Amino acid sequence: xxxxxxxxxxxxxxxxxxxxxxxxxxxxxxxxxxxxxxxxxxxxxxxxxxxxxxxxxxxxxxxxxxxxxxxxxxxxxxxxxxxxxxxxxxxxxxxxxxxxxxxxxxxxxxxxxxxxxxxxxxxxxxxxxxxxxxxxxxxxxxxxxxxxxxxxxxxxxxxxxxxxxxxxxxxxxxxxxxxxxxxxxxxxxxxxxxxxxxxxxxxxxxxxxxxxxxxxxxxxxxxxxxxxxxxxxxxxxxxxxxxxxxxxxxxxxxxxxxxxxxxxxxxxxxxxxxxxxxxxxxxxxxxxxxxxxxxxxxxxxxxxxxxxxxxxxxxxxxxxxxxxxxxxxxxxxxxxxxxxxxxxxxxxxxxxxxxxxxxxxxxxxxxxxxxxxxxxxxxxxxxxxxxxxxxxxxxxxxxxxxxxxxxxxxxxxxxxxxxxxxxxxxxxxxxxxxxxxxxxxxxxxxxxxxxxxxxxxxxxxxxxxxxxxxxx
Length: 472
Known about the structure:
six-stranded antiparallel sheet; Heat Shock Protein 90
């Protein structure tokens, strides 16, 4: 730090108190570099100069790769390379988003914070730099594409004016009108489409207004203002998609290009899919209603039974049926292919709490689940597994405990889902796990056969059961 102070004295007009202030700031720069993952520099104006600055302190991040292979301490900075730094010196204002070029020819984005003394004088600037070379390349690519598109439009126009044939491989119909609103080119596809729709094909040299379909003239006027306009219209039994593209050369309006596409078959298939989707949703809704009816019948039967063991078997069966009904209810109201898993978990927990809560116990639930979708063919299996695991926790985990907690957690890792059911109950002996019980058999079979996954039992201040399965 003594060498740093000496450099200040020799190369700057700073007072000893200003230097002491900057030395204090420099001592914290490494923390800032690691926190922001950026190279950080402290610059001061060279003695007697307003167009040159010098790097008097630097910090390279330990949390990411530095942009510089060598030290820049003592290097002279000029305004042409780093305009934001000198703007901060002159105005005393924070500067962000400015770009600079390093001596190693790397384009960086700078954030420049002016440092003032007690007299409000700018005595230095703190600079954070991040590499934006990839962003520059992307911007250059976009500019190249824009230039190429303009050149393509000019070439297309010149081809049309010369009345040569455009490639017949283009699926869309192409019509070109010049700046006077006269047809300059009509490709074979467009001619076929007009005949198919029952209208005469546009004739080269005739005005656009001669077309019986008025929407072309409207789109041309709108394209002049906005550049591109599109509209879908019905012509008899046909559905036509029309796109109007304004063509300019050297910012001068040269005409408009129409792209035509007959989307009748596409819309027909979309309508069929919508009808099928509605039918499938209605089927899901009716299956849900039938399952709820079965649950209600079993619930009526359960009330007529005095044997507690039989009542418990009925209650378990009702919960299993209700769990499946939840899946079909979700599919009947949303996507027919995917189910929102976190919503499903919360509804299962709510259902079991409602059916199995005991007035003498205070069992709380916690669901930790990020938004994730589950294919509908796996939803029923996951729902039944969760139903069995939560029911078991309710029945066996707490014994004489008055207070308890059951937690359901879901995590997605790449193409696999991991679901954990954990309680803070009395735990169990894994060696005495009853593999012949119906609930355990259901869980093991569904995880292995339906999901292709595996299950793990553990004791962690209670019972912790985790199952994981592939779910791209």
